[in-house]
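Q: Convert this sequence to structure tokens.
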Amino acid sequence: MSEQKPPQDERLLELRDRIDGIDSEIARLISERANCALEVAEVKKRNGEDALYYRPEREAQVLRRAMERNPGPLTGEEMARLFREIMSACLALEEPIKVAYLGPEGTFTQQAALKHFGHSAVSKPLAAIDEVFREVEAGAVNYGVVPVENSTEGVVNHTLDNFMTSNLQICGEVELRIHQHLMISDITRQESITRIYSHAQSLAQCRKWLDSYYPNVERIAVASNAEAAKRVKGEWNAAAIAGDMAAELYGLKVLNEKIEDRPDNSTRFLIIGSQAVPASGDDKTSLMVSMRNEPGALHDLLVPFQNHKIDLTRVETRPAQSGNWTYVFFIDFVGHRDSDNVAAALKDVGACASDMKVLGSYPRGVL
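A:
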């Protein structure tokens, strides 16, 4: 005679009923929000307004409020991620956003694009940064996503160089915590690994770990981490260094997690588009400046920012595309171009510069 199973705990049944009720209310509220989004689109059309359904400053404000109002136990970042996907799905009802990014699929740049625009955006991988710029300039996509700097390896020069000839605006930024994993395929013989594929920057970010655990294994730089993951699928003696998306996309097994030398390793990406972005309340501005080749030029460039109490977050120098031994400065600072102190500083910089271009003011990104 079989033992009689004890009755289910009444408290557990009560909690499950409560969760079912909450889920129903969440679904109702999401549908109500989606209907409001559709009505917003209709109002804009009736009023003949410019059909900019995606407003970076508005979405930044919504995400900040979601994080500020978050009572827990979910983290603020997780709450923002959930709201991002809701907004992405609602926006797709009005008009899906088309986004180009530095590909192929499975790269950290794709991860940044999904973090910023959500999974309802239509994304398009491209092989080079200048192709992303061209696709946005041609109007084939609404926005592009390109890497600009890594906390370990520094600036991505190719991205900065494209701004010298492009009229696109920076519409936003994404900061992404970068975790590198060592991964293998189902045919890899773990004890016989003789080569490790990855992007050059990823290999550099994991140099000390590789020196310790695989000192005699050949390190081969390829075009992207996704390309590295793809190669490993057909080689029994190879491993790859890449992120979670590449492992999932190509069905690889993660052998060692988070092997980056610096635990705070992060990469900053820029969102490029054709629109100027109004102030969101917590913004940054990027500037490109050419100075005359004379003593004290750099000092003259920086003084206006000090005088108007503006916090500089980055200053980079690149060789100008015309003229030997002349340079272009790329400057990021806190504030929006429409605020009084920033406008005054830009006027002073313009007076001493041989050329100046505001690349954009945009909502400040968070990790």
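The mean pLDDT is 91.
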